[in-house]
Amino acid sequence: MKFRCFLKIKFKKKEMTMKKKWIVMIIGLFVLSVAGFIFCFWVADDKDANKYNVVTVTKNNVVREIKDDGIFNPVIRVEVGSKISGNVTEIFVKEGDLVKKGDVLAIVESALAKKKLEKFEARLEMLCRQTEGIKITITANLRHLEQNRKLSKEGVVSKEDFWKAEDDYFKSLNDLELIISQMDEALADLGVSKIDLENSFVRSSIDGIVLAKYVEMGQTVSAGFSVHKMFDVCSPMSELNFFAKVNSIDFSAVRVGQKIKINVNTAAGIKGFYSIISEKHDNPILENSVPVYNAIAKISNQDLELKPGMTGKFFITVAEKNNVLTISADSLKKALIFSGENGNAMILTGDRVVRSEIETGLLGDKLVEISGKIKEGDLIITGNKNFGGGNKAKTSPWQSKTGGR
Questions:
Q1: pLDDT higher than threshold 70 for residue 22
Q2: Closest residue by Cα to residue 82 from 182, 199, 165, 162
Q3: Which of 270, 222, 257, 276 is nearest to 110 (CA)?
Q4: Which fold has domain 67-76+234-320?
């Protein structure tokens, strides 16, 4: 009986020992399986760059630009017209003609200006004749006065005769002064009438090109209180102004001296023109009730391809950094999401994945400046490549399902 009890107890102990061994073996196999899975799934990936989507850090120029449309205009554009009223009797130019400053473009004949000129010339001539007559009278009166003075001392003539001779002399002097003042007035009137007559010749005020003509032969123009516009004359088209229309948000970033590129559609395709911003106009212009501001650049046009009124798309470089570490903005976003932490990125280095600090600088139109514990040639992981032919990508081991670490 005691022996049976001993065997039963011994068998139970052996059975419990076997169960523990099986439990330990199962746990061990599970741990090894998990470790193998992690090793094969992640560590093995670390040894093969082809298992990750990566972007290479390169040195490039980062540029931020403002883009919009603008228009070409002459550097100088003036309105030329008649200052007097009358009929257009002669036109000497047509649109596109080259002119020099002072060239006569047209003649406006004014009968009134001619009549005034003739009237003042005749009056001046009459006053000149009167002056000559008064001078003769003065000479005669002076001789008569001297004779009377001598005879009055000798008692031959009375004092009354002497006084009358003296009065005649001084009266003739006063007449001469009056005529001289009238001549001055006539000369002034004659000068004004000559200016009016000269204004009948419509002259160019600058060297340039006749851009537009607004009158025809025989047309009557009326000056009134302003100049009647007859022609538009612009400076030579070998240089044009480009007016870049910038919205109110971007205009504060525009500075004189910044680089500008203008793309213009031509018969041969899109052609680029390059310059710098030379002026900023702070006076807004309303376009569809929206304020826009003009930034002006002078564009060389030696081959005369560009014409006033043509439009182009401009690119103003408002910020630029050269030869800095860069990646694309999209790659940076993906790298930060993959790392699960802002300010850090996962770098593939040989057979290891290393977390590294990353800082952003200038945000360009295509590239982003980066710095930190990053160097040229580093491979930044932006995600895992798809597996099993599916479209679902693997989740980062450093990121939880909710996006945390």
A1: no
A2: 199
A3: 222
A4: Elongation Factor Tu (Ef-tu); domain 3 (2.40.30)
Between the alpha carbon of residue 205 and those of residues 78, 231, 232, 235, 333, the distances in Å are 8, 11, 11, 10, 60
Residue-averaged pLDDT of the chain: 82
Residue spans per domain, the chain:
1-46, 67-76+234-320, 111-199
Q: How crowded is residue 137: how many other Cβ atoms within 10 Å of its Cβ?
A: 17
Report the DSSP pairing between strands 86-91 and 269-287.
Answer: unpaired
Cβ proximity of 111 and 84 under 8 Å: no
Residue 173's pLDDT is what? Answer: 87
Lookup result for tokens 């009375």: 158
Condensed to tens digits (0 to 9), the pLDDT of residues 283-330 reads 999 988 889 999 999 999 998 889 999 999 999 999 999 999 999 999
Give the whole-angstrom CA distance, residue 295 versus residue 301: 19
What's the average model confidence in pLDDT over 217-244? 86
Q: Which residue has the tokens 């798309």?
A: 313
pTM exceeding the 0.85 threshold for the entire prediction: no
Distance, CA of 225 to CA of 213 (rounded, Å): 21
